[in-house]
Amino acid sequence: xxxxxxxxxxxxxxxxxxxxxxxxxxxxxxxxxxxxxxxxxxxxxxxxxxxxxxxxxxxxxxxxxxxxxxxxxxxxxxxxxxxxxxxxxxxxxxxxxxxxxxxxxxxxxxxxxxxxxxxxxxxxxxxxxxxxxxxxxxxxxxxxxxxxxxxxxxxxxxxxxxxxxxxxxxxxxxxxxxxxxxxxxxxxxxxxxxxxxxxxxxxxxxxxxxxxxxxxxxxxxxxxxxxxxxxxxxxxxxxxxxxxxxxxxxxxxxxxxxxxxxxxxxxxxxxxxxxxxxxxxxxxxxxxxxxxxxxxxxxxxxxxxxxxxxxxxxxxxxxxxxxxxxxxxxxxxxxxxxxxxxxxxxxxxxxxxxxxxxxxxxxxxxxxxxxxxxxxxxxxxxxxxxxxxxxxxxxxxxxxxxxxxxxxxxxxxxxxxxxxxxxxxxxxxxxxxxxxxxxxxxxxxxxxxxxxxxxxxxxxxxxxxxxxxxxxxxxxxxxxxxxxxxxxxxxxxxxxxxxxxxxxxxxxxxxxxxxxxxxxxxxxxxxxxxxxxxxxxxxxxxxxxxxxxxxxxxxxxxxxxxxxxxxxxxxxxxxxxxxxxxxxxxxxxxxxxxxxxxxxxxxxxxxxxxxxxxxxxxxxxxxxxxxxxxxxxxxxxxxxxxxxxxxxxxxxxxxxxxxxxxxxxxxxxxxxxxxxxxxxxxxxxxxxxxxxxxxxxxxxxxxxxxxxxxxxxxxxxxxxxxxxxxxxxxxxx
Amino acid sequence: xxxxxxxxxxxxxxxxxxxxxxxxxxxxxxxxxxxxxxxxxxxxxxxxxxxxxxxxxxxxxxxxxxxxxxxxxxxxxxxxxxxxxxxxxxxxxxxxxxxxxxxxxxxxxxxxxxxxxxxxxxxxxxxxxxxxxxxxxxxxxxxxxxxxxxxxxxxxxxxxxxxxxxxxxxxxxxxxxxxxxxxxxxxxxxxxxxxxxxxxxxxxxxxxxxxxxxxxxxxxxxxxxxxxxxxxxxxxxxxxxxxxxxxxxxxxxxxxxxxxxxxxxxxxxxxxxxxxxxxxxxxxxxxxxxxxxxxxxxxxxxxxxxxxxxxxxxxxxxxxxxxxxxxxxxxxxxxxxxxxxxxxxxxxxxxxxxxxxxxxxxxxxxxxxxxxxxxxxxxxxxx
Lengths: 733, 383
What we know:
heterodimer; A: alpha+beta; Penicillin-binding protein 2a (Domain 2); Beta-lactamase; 7-stranded mixed beta sheet; 5-stranded antiparallel beta sheet; 25 helices; elongated; B: mainly alpha; 3-stranded antiparallel beta sheet; 13 helices
């Protein structure tokens, strides 16, 4: 600086000349000063690195979070056969408050809380304020779970608008998936639900849990060889979707009529539902595909713990059983009755379980086709026998009545007539011809006592609920012929029945036809699986004929839907306690009669009626369901319609479809699924598949030891009907 | 410089390609570092729609606009701005006051921004305006600037703007920069050394005294957040979770980088520990990723840029042009020195961005306009 002072000559400022020498020198000095500053800062940088480098390196690593973050997978969808979603997983958002970030700037807290107040009217903002001020260092506080994108979008918009709302901070949203059931209670027993989006409970959700579940992804940090932190993300693998054989439309029709039945019959003779249980299964006879499976009462899959759905049910015990004299849950008593959480859970479990596969009961007369088929197939019956029914039959010490007992019996009946009229006496006589060995052999051929292995969670075991060779005496055989004394499940009945109808092919019943990955690729296709041949095609044709007779001539007339010819069998089963007040009504049939495509099984368990032993409950329910289901399935009507029936169909908006008048329809169907059109114009879409996949197990058509002798004997024995009145009361069932 | 010499005497404008290269390099490097530092946080935040390139895109748009303005300004004869001196001063003052009106808005805890179609910081405009204004004023006063009265006359208007920037926009660092620009310009133009040296010593002594007072004060609260920042500066680790957090994290970043750094994009500190790493603390991430080597290279680039500015200033054909370049040089030098000083905790933490590199649209745009002025001055040079 001093050297500058020595400059004597004062340079004047000349605007037009640029910087003079003094100024240039000064500028150089300035530049040097800046360089010195740079040098100083450079030294400082070096010092920081040299003196503290190692310590800071460790510090940086120690600050890292090595704990992994879970990236949730998406649980697979459950679809119906047409692809509509029965269960799906939606992305939802959990609101997380980071107090540290929110308090980083003074203005942020109020600005953020204001924004939250505006965007989430129901949010308790003061609770957030309390949390944030009391835990200023907390970084993860879940405020609200499972918000939808629509709910949070307003806030996100404000948060993103840095110009108008620059201070919003410390709120972020964590992704999660929420299980959603778009149809609420539709097929609730079949689908099942999930607890917090994972861990399926009941139905398909539980049975296919491993398939539906994906693998969580992870984001985590680790130190690599160079001691630097690496963060790795393993993306989540989404679960597989399952395509079910359920047709949501058929399911809906079935559930509509179950609901209607309940509405019409509830509180009729006693408080509560229209029946203790209602169940219905519709199955494709040629594949084992379950097209619909429904029971009543249902529950809301989106809110399975809603106890209001229990109203009308009988209260169950802690172990899940419902005693005969159980209290009916009503709006008035439900809170008090279910005050105990365990009792409440037991009752909910009862609601959640699938009646169609989990409940066992005595099937009653719907078992009769199985008995006849066993007799015919084994050769113990020829089909040409005649039986005389006087109203009751003495078996051992019991005098077992026929339903026509009061009218003096059914008279003399052919085998077909016995089926048509559901004559117990005839069947007991047939049982004597068949013998317990053959009866049991066929019972196990029909898979009774074994699980059907339907792909649903909770199928009941029935191995201890049927007779074995050592437990089946004369009485047991007699009652078993008409379906009393042993227990079955609905799925066993309809699966076995399909084999009686379709030519003897016992298909494994199934719910899932296809498993697809989240990208749409097919992981697995489930083809119909024939497990065995129960009876021959010839016997099957006879059973079909008998069952058509039941609807045309016998006890099943009322079950026939307008415009169609169907076959089937009614059942009125006594239930324990056998006090003639508890009945299970059922109808099991197939349609159309000439070319069976579907089988239907309807069960009404203890209807709410003064007179329960009225199989009309089941017949009418079946008729209602088929009236809508058959036209929906594009099965052509073959029968003339009465004016009344036409009016009924018009009211349901069902257009009458007939093969000869709707040629376009036929063509359309032909294009879609290479069907065979039989002589009646009915489309047989399955015929081709089935014949190709049958492992034919040769059944002995004829047996040498056909015993005709007992026939007359039995008939004669039957005539000892004097002591009928006294003895009937002793009937142990 | 020889290759620029045109012996034929034709009027071929001088273009300083070295300077242009440095500008392009720094801006491009800045964009890379903005992306590197911001992509992690941007991808994690709903504020930025989880777009990792959110900040990069905004900065790129501002940079392109800045280049366009730079080219336009470099073709405008710079004496046009001399006539604009007064207007520039008034406009910058008015814009600062506008921050108080509803046009102004708050971001990052301070009301410093104006929404005029695009959002800008009046303080950035004030820096440019101050360069234009002080250069014009010096050329008007000529030798009178060497008198005490003249000096005061030149320094009062910048002081007023500084006070406004400080008090109205609560932006002390910008106030210091604006004052520094005017101070350096006057220093170059003035014949005097002594007065400036005395001023510098007095200012430093005052600052030291203030720091002493704050450390001794029983209740540091009365000095406000700036007092706390000074305490945090002296011992950042004692205030690790408060005011010292950012500084300490920046030091961790620098220290953990080593000589060659962790590699571009490999910073750990930018992943949530150094908040808004793309802003004022970007230099620490440069050091973490590119090491001491990278940090010192950046400083050398700035030194080279300042050297080119010095060459242009010293060769400017008239005083006004030279002073414009001096102003720009002062602006860049002060900001670079202060920024790196803050990052290395050499001075207390105050928000100063690293020219061309830190994220900030207004900053990069007005810096490029200033370099447009420099190019405009350079075009008149005939070697």
